[in-house]
Amino acid sequence: PELVRRLGVVDVTPGTDHEKAEPIIAFVDGPEYFADFDEILARTIEFNPGRSEQSLRRGVLHNAYEMEDGRWTWRYDRMRDWKVTGDRAPSFEDLWAKVDLVQVPITLWQGGKWSVIGDEDVAEWMRRRPDTTHIVVDGAGHSIQGDRPIEMAALIEDLLAS
């Protein structure tokens, strides 16, 4: 509570699993490196048909970088080790207990067009934290900030002002 006065969670819960996240996994499970910016942008456009090229270009510039040899790669941890080592896909179910421990107001934003959150996840979240504000963002998928950046900014401003 001293460091965090309120918490906003964007389209994810501990109940998000491989099946619910399949479209995202298919996207990030692609090549680790891309020959150039055009190649990484083309893959991004292929997996995000509802978003403008301008929006996706901006997203790639924020989420990828050019390496010294001119190739491009993503900035995020690809979580490939579980595939390489043969381990099971990670489970986040144990994190439900952490939701119980949060001592500040929570807002859970969910994409209205498609989401990695199932109805059962919302029900479990609300059972554990009935004081949560749950907002479904119409027209947005999992990447609410990418699909509806102006609306997401307003939602964050509302959260910070509360």
Overview of the molecule:
This protein folds into two domains: 89 residues, 3-Layer(aba) Sandwich (Rossmann fold); 73 residues, no CATH class. The strands form two sheets. A three-stranded parallel beta sheet has the order 1-5-6, with helices on one face. Strands 2-4-3 form a three-stranded antiparallel beta sheet. With 162 residues, the protein is an alpha/beta fold. It has eight helices and six strands, in the order βαβααββααβαβαα. A hairpin with a 5-residue loop joins strand 3 and strand 4. The longest helix is centred in the C-terminal third of the chain and has 13 residues.
What would you say about this model in short?
By secondary structure, this protein is an alpha/beta fold.
List keywords for this structure.
single chain; Rossmann fold; 8 helices; 6 strands; 41% helix
Layout of helices and strands:
Layout: E1 7-10, H1 22-28, E2 33-34, H2 37-47, H3 53-63, E3 64-66, E4 72-74, H4 81-84, H5 96-101, E5 106-111, H6 119-128, E6 133-137, H7 144-147, H8 149-161
Parallel strand pairs: 1-5, 5-6
Antiparallel strand pairs: 2-4, 3-4
Helix pairs in contact: 2-3
